[in-house]
Amino acid sequence: MTKRTYSISELSEEFGITPRTLRYYEDEALIAPKREGQARIYSTSDRARLIWILRGKRVGFSITDIREVLNMHYGEGGKEEQCRVTITACNNRIKSLEQQKKDIDETLEELSNLVDTMTIFMAENYPEDNIL
Amino acid sequence: MTKRTYSISELSEEFGITPRTLRYYEDEALIAPKREGQARIYSTSDRARLIWILRGKRVGFSITDIREVLNMHYGEGGKEEQCRVTITACNNRIKSLEQQKKDIDETLEELSNLVDTMTIFMAENYPEDNIL
DNA sequence: TTCTTGGTTGACCTTTACGTAAAGGGTAAC
DNA sequence: GTTACCCTTTACGTAAAGGTCAACCAAGAA
């Protein structure tokens, strides 16, 4: 049970974001660190949430999307209807992520084709420059 | 050799975007349809560019990113240095897309875990509602 | 001729995700 | 005490990607 805590600048440096960003996420109710006086103090579980947030951003989730997913995770899944809603929301996200993977694969193929053609072109026209 | 052409509304309806969006892409130099008087008239190759643009957006490219890639594709790859720059730019994009795929896979796993837990929870607490 | 339909430009509006001061509190070192 | 550092809040600024609205043109239908 690691009881480590983090200051705002520790956390922001670790993940390459600014303190402003962390405060913004708090405004948007994505994280809720404890306070020590005025100062924010982040727990390991706050840190875990942050990791989720940042990965969410990298896959193109909006702040609202991320809040939704975090709420799914930590929210009281008590009520039946709420559960059902959450499950279908998840499934929708899953579908769109799978579409996104397809898009990425297609883009990757086009990009690597482009690289190939250009590499060949270079090899033909400027053979003196060894690309390898 | 399909010499079809498209009006702005045809194209926007086909892809579920507004004419405004197409005009905006033109302002941003992503497409350059011919004109018939004032009216824009899009060729099949304009349409192909549009497909690229929209897929680019879905994988999180910005307008600037997309312009860059389109220029790589259609730009004169003549000069040597330019080629080299283009190739490394492509490779950078490829790397980041691969990272993005990893992120997506991780997110997918967490989401499907979440769905699983909730489904089990539902089955235990509300067995009368058949989820299958 | 007037009306509708579909196109045009231009101008301003909106949302998202922060950046960037401005002004100040708390404590530790000098 | 004051300097330095890290933290705070409040608040306005900004870039991206369009939305929205007004005013206009042109061609065909009624």
Characterize the structure shown.
The first copy, chain A, has 132 residues and is mainly α. Chain A has a domain of 61 residues: Orthogonal Bundle (Multidrug-efflux Transporter Regulator, Chain: A, Domain 2). Chain A is built from five helices and three strands; from the N terminus they run E-H-H-E-E-H-H-H. In chain A, strands 1-3-2 form a three-stranded antiparallel beta sheet. In chain A, a hairpin with a 2-residue loop joins strand 2 and strand 3. Chains A and B meet through helix 3, helix 4 and helix 5 of A and helix 3, helix 4 and helix 5 of B. The structure holds a DNA duplex (30 and 30 nucleotides).
Task: Give a quick summary of the entry.
The structure is a homodimer of 132-residue chains. With 132 residues, the first copy, chain A, is mainly α.
